[in-house]
Amino acid sequence: MAQSWLVVGLGNPGPRYEMTRHNIGQLVVDELASRRSETFRSHKANARAAETWLRPGTDKLILAKPNSFMNVSGGPVAALASFYGVPADRVIVVHDELDIPFDTIKLKVGGGHGGHNGVRDVAKALGTPDFPRVRVGIGRPPGRQDAADWVLDPFGPTERKTLPILVADAADAVEQLIDEGLLAAQQRHHAPRS
């Protein structure tokens, strides 16, 4: 039986943040929508959402981008999950991860938030940390740059060359997670990149 999945890309609203490291989750959700020729529409849950399918006739996908700032993402995510009747174990959160090198993707279900305030707020709002996460590596800042500034900076020139491939791979990871399960997606995406 087909099920619904809610795939949320975390980030900050507005053009100022669009191409920053903190918004890579939203770039991945944009890629998933683009593959299906879908556009986002305003949703009463303080988010933009697109309703589509993994493939026609299969699991329903709700792709979403909260309109709130990253650190208060939980309200829109919980409201969307409630509106669409999606349980936490089918709410996939796509987000940036400082502790993973750039151009690396890791998937997990549950666990801590690793200091990521957006993930912390989603776990609090859903009432559980046990939701799937697609963690897209942005790496730590060089030298003494503050991590808070780093995540709000645009991608550098070298990163921008690889970014479309990384975003496409992360979108593939979301699709495989839904299609084949966590273990299969981990086995493919946790392997060293060639």
UniProtKB/TrEMBL annotation:
It is found in: Cytoplasm. The active site is at 22 (proton acceptor). This is Peptidyl-tRNA hydrolase. PANTHER family: PEPTIDYL-TRNA HYDROLASE. Keywords: Cytoplasm, Hydrolase, RNA-binding, tRNA-binding. Monomer. It catalyses: an N-acyl-L-alpha-aminoacyl-tRNA + H2O = an N-acyl-L-amino acid + a tRNA + H(+). It is an enzyme of class 3 (hydrolase). GO terms for molecular function: peptidyl-tRNA hydrolase activity. Catalyzes the release of premature peptidyl moieties from peptidyl-tRNA molecules trapped in stalled 50S ribosomal subunits, and thus maintains levels of free tRNAs and 50S ribosomes. PROSITE patterns: PEPT_TRNA_HYDROL_1, PEPT_TRNA_HYDROL_2. Its main location: cytoplasm. TRNA binds at residues 17, 69, 71, 117. Belongs to the PTH family. Its EC number is 3.1.1.29. The record marks 12 as: Discriminates between blocked and unblocked aminoacyl-tRNA. Gene3D superfamilies: Peptidyl-tRNA hydrolase. InterPro entries: Pept_tRNA_hydro, Pept_tRNA_hydro_CS, Pept_tRNA_hydro_sf. It comes from the Bacteria. The lineage of its organism: Bacteria, Bacillati, Actinomycetota, Actinomycetes, Micrococcales.
